[in-house]
Amino acid sequence: MSVPFAFVSIILIWSTTPLAIKWSALGIGFSFAVFSRMTIGVLLCIVLLAIFRIRFPLHSKARRAYLAGGLSMFAAMVLTYWSSQFISSGMIAVLFGLSPLITSLGAMMWLKEESFTPAKLAGMVLGLMGLWLVFRGGLGLGEGSTAGLLALFAAVVAQSLGLVWIKRIGDDSPPLATTLGTLAVALPLFCGAWLLADGRLPDAMPERAVAATVYLGTFGSVLGFALYYYLIKHTEAGRVALITLVTPVMALLLGHALNDEAVLPQVWLGTASILLGLCLHQWGERWVRALVK
Q1: pLDDT value at residue 41
Q2: Domain locations in the chain as residue ranges
Q3: In angstroms, rounded to a whole number, what is the distance separating the alpha carbons of residues 290 and 227?
Q4: Can you say whether the dihedral through the CA atoms of 194, 188, 146, 22 is positive or negative?
Q5: Are 44 and 224 in contact (CB under 8 A)?
Q6: pLDDT tens digits for range 253-277
Q7: CB-based contacts of 91: which residues, under 8 Å, 6+ apart?
Q8: Confidence of residue 97 (pLDDT cuts 50, 70, 90)
Q9: CB count, 10 Å around CB of 257?
Q10: Is the CB of residue 39 less than 8 Å from the CB of residue 213?
């Protein structure tokens, strides 16, 4: 598998994931929606491992990687699904656009992959400005919007630091096996969250919610995370997170077109600031050297 193919595939999956999360929780509740998604993911992973006869390592590094991935996935997904009750799918994608900056900061301190340069600092400042604009545009959109935005930001931090944690462990297990191990660790936690939040099966399952849950369980959890772990093993942690450079704008447009979500000017400005910060963070030093030459 080529790295560019994995990048493009994840961009397409992650651009549609926020809207699918919104639709999957319609009529069935956020806790049952995320638990159902992860259950589908685990079953599909088991079938694929058996069909392709992929080994499932249980050595020390593999177990630590499963634990790191499972804990970060649980925290990120529960907070994201909960916040989706109060904020738009486009807003979810925009805030997850901050993950490269948070991931890079974690990699600087934990992995020593990168040095702290003026361009990276400027990129982080622009990202923070964009975050402030997004919060300003999202506050007051409805009851619970403030708590939803704060929970979503915590989800972004959890996913970003989880990426760095997995990269630090350095496990070389097959990506699909890592996906299964991660889901296996997280699934009991999702079940517990469902039991605490609701604990009962929905009376009816809307067709849109069923379709969105199956899509998320198949593509969002299995294929998406398998490609995600493949990229973690073959590229730097900061570069893996760069896939969110494209997904916020695509998700905003999809949410507006397919779900009639309003996008305020402050959100567009915040999105532009975050994306500009990402570009400056990633390529700023190269641009400065080119100007000097």
Answers
A1: 93
A2: 3-53+60-292
A3: 33
A4: negative
A5: no
A6: 888 888 888 777 888 888 888 888 8
A7: 134, 138, 149, 152, 267
A8: confident
A9: 10
A10: no
CA gap 235, 181 in Å, rounded: 21
* Rounded Cα–Cα distance for residues 32 and 177 (Å): 25
Structure tokens, 25? 């929780």
Q: Which of 219, 101, 232, 81 is nearest to 168 (CA)?
A: 232
CA–CA separation, 87 and 134 (whole Å): 11
Q: Can you tell me whether residue 143 is helix, strand or coil?
A: coil
What is the C-alpha separation between 108 and 120, in angstroms, rounded?
11
The whole model's pTM is what? Answer: 0.86
Residue 50: CA count within 13 A, CB half-sphere: 6
Q: How far is CA 37 from CA 2, 31, 222, 234, in A?
A: 27, 10, 10, 27
CB 218 within 8 A of CB 40: yes
